[in-house]
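Re: duplicated header lines in exported structure tokens

Our pipeline writes sequence and tokens for each protein into one text file. With two proteins the header for the second block appears twice in some exports. Here is an export where it did not happen, for reference. First protein block:
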Amino acid sequence: MGDFIKTQNSFSNGEVSSQFYAHDNINGLSVLENMDVLAGGGLSRRAGLRRVAGLPDVGRLISFSVADDRDYILALSDGYMDIFYNNELSQHLPTPWDKDSLAKLQFAQRFGTMIFVHPDFVPQTLRYNDDSFILSDFSFARGDDDMSLYIPFMKFDDASDIKITVSSNTSGTNYATLTTNSDFWTAENVGGRLFLLDRQWLITEYVNPTQVVAYTNGAYTVPSTAISDWREAAFGTRRGWPCSITFHQDRLVFGGSRTWPSGVWMSAVGAHNNFNTGTGLDDEAISLTLLSQQRQQICTVVSSDNLQILTTTGEWAISSKPLTPSSVDIKQHTSVGSISARYLAPQKIEGATVFIAATGRDIRELSLDALGENYNANDLCAYAKHLMQSPIDMAYNDATRRLFVVRDDGVMAVLNQNSSLGISAWGTYTTQGKFLSVAVCNDKTYVAVSRDDGVYLEYFDDSALSDATSYNFSFTAAALPLRVSNHNVRRLRIRKISARVLDTKTISINGCHIVLPNEIYDDGNSGYSGDVFKSQLGTTHETIFAPWRIHGCAPQPITVLSVTIYGWYTV
């Protein structure tokens, strides 16, 4: 038996899994709910939420910055996009995407243009002009004959043994009947393009599984034999559209499609709708396929120091600078893999690319080693796996150094990250309702929230002490089980728990409300700063549980700098 005084003055590891309760080198907590870890290691009640507007449906939020002083929030719902500026509805646009398709929608922005891609929909371009937006189909550049498109063409696996016999058609000299040696065509081929006889053909009519009618620009010579050297457009109704997108080295990059999941297509330099590979000049388009022993789907492409390609089985990078058709230095660096069922946009945090692993239980930090040659994929939630459950959205606020991960149960896991100060602390945010989506715009963190009476757009505000003025929320920070002198404690008697607080107006310790001086509630008073305590807390053998718990539900500020326990124990 021995007396002890133990102070915890840093909570830099946040909430940790029970698997780590017996570790002595962790500045963690068993529970951290609706509180943030500060730069100095202390704890503070999270900001409240301010309501912006009602939303038509369960949606998805996207940030769109068109200029230094023009930042918009795009709220996507079933067939519509609501655009907000300065927390006011600016525009209501129809979109081609239904509610179920929003999970796989990806996007990339360059200046006042944002391009959206989805494997089942024609890519869409959102353009900003004179304080308004226009959404239209993405258009590939046209050739000199005004019929040819600068779209990539390729030979798909199921067409490798297909030969095409070209015959004239009564519709005109520019038309032909294309007959295959076995069933191949479907009605989805109509509107698609082929490249054969050194020219492009537009399929205008489906006849049967072996015959279609196609149109080309100008007269052609009917070949005497069937043609095996032909290709299809990489994108279209039958083959699907790009799955992922980014801009890199002034090229527009598409990654993967429904039918060619490991393809990478890059536009010509400075001509983002031109995917004509031409003769392979340095500034012309590039087309390549990831080659590995495993079948893999490209989940997303990320422009960083290199072009990063995240697939279902691993992480690749193209390090060529400049990137040209003749110099594509590509290799796989790690084998973690990413989620393919939905798009969880990777975030840039302290120079690294942070993404959610294929398991849905890891958040990985993709960063170059000290030599700048190879990538590592460190696990950011190694201590808090229990908090990473079925993520559905993710965003990072660089101003507050917080990563927000929305889960499908409506809870939001939050990482307070500051590597230079040794802070890597996970916790959770809850509200009276469910968090649905998150985005960061103009240093503000916006959320879509489902409440009893509807879905709303709201944002976190340090001056708000409740959620949407009507909903209070509780907060909790609970200690790890007590260990003294590297030993588990078997029997514990706590004589006093003392908390050093700053600018605080409410605090409860182990279920007991602490009375603070009356004058702190006067207008203009920031709150109490000093030590508060609770004495005579009794003896317990249940030492696997938290010896102290700081909590509350009043809409008042609280900041805890340290907690000290006084008592005696046996081991």
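Second protein block, exported in the same file:
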Amino acid sequence: MNQLIECVPNFSEGNDLNIIKQITNEIESVEGVKLLNVDPGKATNRTVVTFVGNPEAVINAAFLAIKKASELIDMSKHKGEHPRMGATDVCPLIPIAGITMEETAEYAKKLGARVGKELNIAVYLYEAAQSNPERSNLSVIRNGEYEGFFKKIKLPDWKPDFGPAEHSVKSGSTVIGARDFLVAYNVNLNTTSTRRANSIAFDVREAGRVKREGNQVTGKIVTDEKGNPVNIPGSLKSVKAIGWYIEEYGIAQISMNLTNINITPVHIAFDEVCKRAAERGIRVTGSELVGVVPLKSMLDAGKYFLEKQSRSIGVSEKELIKIAVKSLGLDELSPFKPEERIIEYLLKDDSKARLIKMNLVEFADETASESPAPGGGSISAYIGSLGISLGTMVANLSSHKQGWDNRWKEFSGWAEKGQYYKSELLKLVDEDTNAFNKIMTAFGLPKSTEEEKKIRSSAIQEATKYATEVPYKVMQLCYDSMEVIKAMADMGNPNSVTDAGVGALCARSAVMGAFLNVKINAAGLTNKDFAAEIVSKGKELEEKTQTLENEILKIVNSKIK
């Protein structure tokens, strides 16, 4: 697996789009990096930029961006709601794929050393890149902000990790580190009071609030035996939060960093803020995500809110995201565009999913054209996806059938299984055609020399083997999907029993069609042992499918009056 890291630098400029564009141009100039999101905030006067790539390319792009920010942003003139200490306030690196946190931390140190040496900017390491636990927390490092750092940097305990022990008047200082994926998330309130927003933030954030004697506002601060203030913990783990007023929107917000979304996901943070706000007579009106978010966060939120309504969660990915957006109010302040805000969507290579992006007429026209692909393999995968879609439909209809309210979760489970098979089969619609194209590419390789012939022959065999494995996978998925179809024929909404029957017919046809492709491609393999084994397994699957189809149709016909 290729190594992939994400970088999310925060620049202290949120109003001048020309400055922001010059910074992001530096990032985009580096090969091996993809800019995912640019999220400027006027009230905070801060822009969060997100990009990904291989580690060397990412730290090179980050260096160029930090350099450009130091040239364009004058911190002596900066005003904004968000705490800050430099032109590039913070620059975290996040491991995404094929790389450990320890390795990512080493890249953060490498970047920090270069910034300190070449740009003469004081750099502090944080989180996984910082070996001193007393200096690993970003808020602790940034305490005092830009204005207070001229004195703070002179203290022996606050000597920078890299660069001069001087706080630049123009560029300030910066923090570079390695951390887990963090979701920056703001919840909107129907109040303009920063004090009340802060009270809610203290209710929910892990650090909570300082404990006081008697009155929690004016009472004397309670200290431990070492003289340190005692805290009353908040209700949410792995959450940092403050309250602020956003002049741009005319509302107060709870601004949160969700530092571990496996512990406190977005939807739980939202609901807890709703609860705490209501206790103080305040209403939550919506929320906003800053930067990008993992797909899982949106899908989990969609499922969470559907389950609260006792509704089936076995709906499409698109529908789950729609429910999440509406339930969290993510479109209150500005449109929420999933294709621009979900990290997996930004990284998706749509060139390999050409067919399933077509409408029904386009797909039929493409199939009927003189091109040999899409052919029987892609059509088999698509027929299979339609078959399980029918089974899933019956499950969803059954989940909210009048009088069956106590069975919604049972049918929701079946529908969720069906959605999985549907999604996997849709991927194989294009993958079967991609496999065919690989064979054509291999046949087009040069064959003038003996070495070229050897390379070409090996490529043809590898591509043919793959073109055998793809339709076999279609067979397996379609056969497995018939478990859902049979269950729905047997115990689903009786008004839709014929839909389950048609689903079984589709699944059977998909298995038989895909098996034809398995056999014809296996015939071209020189590895006869592999060819014989996959054909034998395919024949067994075909026979089992036909038996299961007969069982399902028997159930269906018995219920047709």
